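[stage:ingest] chain + small molecule (uridine-5'-diphosphate)
[stage:ingest] validated
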Amino acid sequence: MHPLTMPRRKQIFEGKAKILFQGPEPGTLVQYFKDDATAFNNKKRGTITGKGVLNNRISEYLMLRLEEIGIATHFVRRLNMREQLVREVEIIPVEVVVRNVAAGSISKKFAIPEGTRLPRSIVEYYYKNDELDDPPISEEHITGFGWATIQEIDEMLNMSLRINDFLMGLFLGISIKLVDFKLEYGRLYHDNGDIQLVLADELSPDNCRLWDVHTDEKMDKDRFRRDLGKIEEAYQEVARRLGILPESGPGDIQGTTTLQ
Ligand code: UDP
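[stage:predict] done
[stage:export] tokens:
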């Protein structure tokens, strides 16, 4: 169902690939996954048919696996083909990028050929701000501008490295190289006053670089960014290898039911 024809409910925020609605209970939100794709800070726009359905499912699967190893996330449960229930958090405006293999901006910046294995995983921070094109930042900027405390940076770094180790193994098991990915964190305010840092946003081929181990074929949003074609197929192949492609195939990917 197109977002405009969905039953009325309060829209909190519309992003490039998702819409956030008020959830059914206080402290919850509904995350709706669109088929819209953007790249180069909105300069390139398009639609990837079925992407929202696949990312909803892939992100659910990965967040649940991470919960199993003790990583706290905002994910509660999937509601339907395109929507998931999440906890309302205060998003920290810092994008944490973890890299195992050189690609994209790091290759360009430091003239490292794409595909070069990095001597150790590199973590970078970017300020989440579209108008400014997500500029790279250091810990000094994060604490200096009050975006997060030193303790929170420490926790984000430790969680991100653990997530990286776990996801690298998970993907390697299905012959996929986890080249790099972007994470976002949020503060979850508990009723007793505790503030917990949790993984938020989504984990999908939209914000990970995933390459086939044997052929280095790209199975992520770079297919869209670089006009490589077979975008839908690549996202589906990731879901298929994870063992979560809807049984009835693409037919399932068309229809959605939405929750009021
Ligand atoms: N990324 C993202 N959102 C952004 C920027 C980057 O999800 O706003 C992801 C991107 O998909 C890749 C990783 O972070 O998996 C590293 O991206 P890079 O810095 O190479 O940027 P890009 O090539 O997208 O300019």
